[in-house]
Amino acid sequence: MSDSVESRIRQMIVERCFLSIAPEQIGDLDDLVEAVGLDSVQVLEVVVGLEETFGITFEDADFDIGNFRNVGSIARYVRSKVAG
């Protein structure tokens, strides 16, 4: 379970954004801007981290805030990119 897509995303967010919380403290539905406190630069850092971690690329059309609102939405989007 520790290697689930969601777990990997949480770990990457904490590391890349230099958060002082444990990855497990980020819930799948926690709003990353409102609840976790990410700013726009950190959200872009998350995008770069997703590309590096999962070997995917994002096109301009992919940048819908709904895809990056929380760990659950990011995981769904990553799975669709990896499968597609």
What does this 3D model show about the protein?
The structure is a single chain. This protein has three helices and no strands. The chain is mainly α and 84 residues long. It starts with a helix and ends with a helix.
Question: Keywords for this structure?
Answer:
single chain; 84 residues; mainly alpha; Non-ribosomal Peptide Synthetase Peptidyl Carrier Protein, Chain A
Proportion of residues in β-strands: under 5%
DSSP summary: helix tally? 3
Number of strands: 0
Binned, the helix content reads 40-55%
Structural class: mainly alpha
Whole-number mean pLDDT? 92
Largest sheet: none
| Rg | 12 Å
Report, as a whole number of angstroms, the end-to-end distance.
23 Å
CATH architecture: Orthogonal Bundle
User: For this structure, what is the CATH homologous superfamily?
Assistant: ACP-like
What are the segments in which pLDDT stays under 50 over at least 5 consecutive residues?
none
Task: Fill in the CATH topology.
Answer: Non-ribosomal Peptide Synthetase Peptidyl Carrier Protein, Chain A
Query: Structurally, how many domains make up the residues?
Result: 1
Draw up the topology in text:
Elements: H1 5-16, H2 40-54, H3 71-83
Helix pairs in contact: 1-2, 1-3
Concise summary:
The protein has three helices and no strands. With 84 residues, the chain is mainly alpha-helical.
